[in-house]
Amino acid sequence: MTTIPATRYETIIGLEVHVQLQTERKMFCDCSAAYADAPPNTHVCPVCMALPGVLPVINRKAIEYTVMTGLALNCQIPSFSKFDRKNYPYPDLLKGYQISQYDLPLTRDGWLEIELEGEAPRRVGITRVHLEEDTARLAHRTDQAGEAYSLIDMNRAGVPLMEIVSEPDMRSAEEARAYLVKLRQILRYIGVSKVNLEEGNFRCDANVSLRPVGAEEMGAKVEIKNMNSFRAVYNALRFEVDRQTRELDTGQRIPQETRGWVEDAGKTVSQRSKEEAHDYRYFPEPDLPPVTLTAEDVAAIRARLPELPDARLRRFEEAYGLGRYEANLLTESRARADYYEATVAAAREAGKDVVKYAREAANWIIGDFARLLNAADMDIGEAQLSPAHLYAMIALVEGGTISGPAAKQVFEEMFRTGKSPGDVVRELGLEQISGSDELAAVAERVIAANEKAAEDYRRGKQEALKFLVGQAMRESRGRANPATMTEILRARLEA
Ligand SMILES: [Zn+2]
Q1: If residue 489 lies in a helix (H) or strand (E), which one and from where to where?
Q2: pLDDT-derived band of residue 288, with 50, 70 and 90 as boundaries?
Q3: How far is the CA of 43 from the centre of ligand 1 (A)?
Q4: 257-262 and 222-227: which strand pairing?
Q5: Which CA distances in Å does 277 have to 219, 256, 257?
Q6: What pLDDT digit, counting tens, does each position of 20-50 carry?
């Protein structure tokens, strides 16, 4: 009997990400775009409320931010671009159309590099980054009689919204997640968006289809919406790949459709089929001039781009002798990378061994510092502890003023109070004990209090010495130099 081998499928994923830009003003009017904590319908004017006869005016900053994003994603920046009307009837759009970009976006044809652990880096194509306006927000309610009704908040209407469309280049949910993490990192580095998913300024839709391995033709595209976190995108894609595999294996046809992710149920459900898809009847926005960008304009925007995460990571590895793991963590956010380099710069200015201090600073920042920040739910930029003080503390350890264990106490106190390491060491009395009389007294007390361990050591049990050193460190509140303490204890025990 022969068994028919199961068909193996290739997964094809493309992502569409909407990002609210962090501009002061809305896209086409002077209303403040910082509406997050505002009461409903307070950031409004005739333009964003779509009253008749008003005229939109382009927010220059939003254009710059979009071009900056395109450059960071290795895109082409055409010299000519325009806005178009995307027509659709929905209550969150009072105008009945959204001003967007159709055939001539501000940027196109770029790429972003992702790297999964243990795999070679891979480029995901960026089809385009275009600019549009956000819609109003609807709140669905039910009255006491059980009648459903909706409230509309116009604060979000007209906030600049960037759409980043990828090529269908991702082959797994893992790659999609890596793409989103990388994209968020870049957008935060260049400072164009807060990229806060909870506040809704980063939203993602995914297109996913399967085809038999080796097939050229694409399978039917299923679009997934309503994903509010990277975890949701990952889980929804995993679910959808499994679902489509099962359908195809049992000979079903996958219809082209839009599906919504239902977080609580952990599944996608059909929302609308292709037949119901909108015809947006795009046409050029008659109230806005086209956008023209000269080579000088683009060069000026490029000049304002900071060093991007990948370049910074490679430089950290080379200049500071860091491993990939450390360099990755240190460049995770621009604020953390800046803090790290400010600490290293302080060592360089003081004429110290840069690589040595760079290693120590890396250990502190990705170790104790990250732990304390995490516990306090703070970003490194909010910390009271300055890079200059971190450098000075490392210098105190290197110079022998404080021991390694005491440094941990000093560090926590500096983190808590923002005081200098010198002040903290004085206040807590943590200067390293280097006088041999004082250390000898500690050794005497520890041996007297731990006779059994002392006896064990004399009988050849080496671990007993470690235990005694630990006791001595505690007795001295971490002030003893561990190496010196070990030598003194050994000498006493073997005398
Ligand atoms: Zn307005």
Answers
A1: helix 482-494
A2: very high
A3: 7
A4: parallel
A5: 18, 10, 9
A6: 999 999 999 999 999 989 999 999 999 999 8
Confidence of residue 2 (pLDDT cuts 50, 70, 90): low
Burial of 170 (0-12, 13-18, 19+ CB in 10 A): buried
Question: SS3 for 274?
Answer: helix
The rounded distance, in Å, linking the Cα atoms of 475 and 452 is: 18
Q: Which residues lie at CB < 5 A from ion ligand 1? A: 29, 31, 45, 47-48
For residue 323, the tally of other CB atoms under 10 A from its CB is 10
Q: Is 485 exposed, middle or buried (0-12, 13-18, 19+ CB in 10 A)?
A: buried
Question: Which pair of structure tokens corresponds to residue 162?
Answer: 């960037």
Q: What number is the average pLDDT over the span 402-427?
A: 91
**Which residues, in sequence order, are CB contacts of 4 under 8 Å at separation 6+?**
none
pTM of the model: 0.86
197-248 pLDDT tens trace: 878 889 999 999 999 998 888 888 999 997 888 999 999 999 999 999 999 9
CA of 118 to the centre of ligand 1 (A): 49
- The string of pLDDT tens digits covering residues 330-341 is 999 999 999 999
Residue 217, H or E segment = none
Distance 29 CA to ligand 1 centre (A): 5
**What separation in Å is there between the alpha carbon of 26 and the centre of ligand 1?**
7
Ligand 1 mean position, distance from CA 69 (Å): 25
Asked if 389 and 421 touch (Cβ cutoff 8 Å), the reply is: yes
- Could you tell me which residues come within 8 angstroms of residue 37 by beta carbon, excluding any fewer than 6 positions away? none
Taking the CA of residue 403 as centre, how many other CA atoms within 13 Å lie in the half-sphere pointing to its CB? 19
Stretch (H or E) spanning 109: strand 107-114
Query: Measured in angstroms, how far is the CA atom of residue 30 from the centroid of ligand 1?
Result: 6
Å from CA of 156 to ligand 1 middle: 10
> 236 C-alpha to center of ligand 1: Å?
36
Q: Which of 86-90, 326-330, 458-462 reaches the highest mean pLDDT?
A: 326-330
CA-nearest of 334, 412, 335 to 367 is 412
**Amino acid letter, residue 73:** L
Distances (CA, A) of 249 to 7, 213, 221: 7, 14, 17
**Could you tell me the end-to-end alpha-carbon distance of the chain, in angstroms, rounded to an integer?**
82
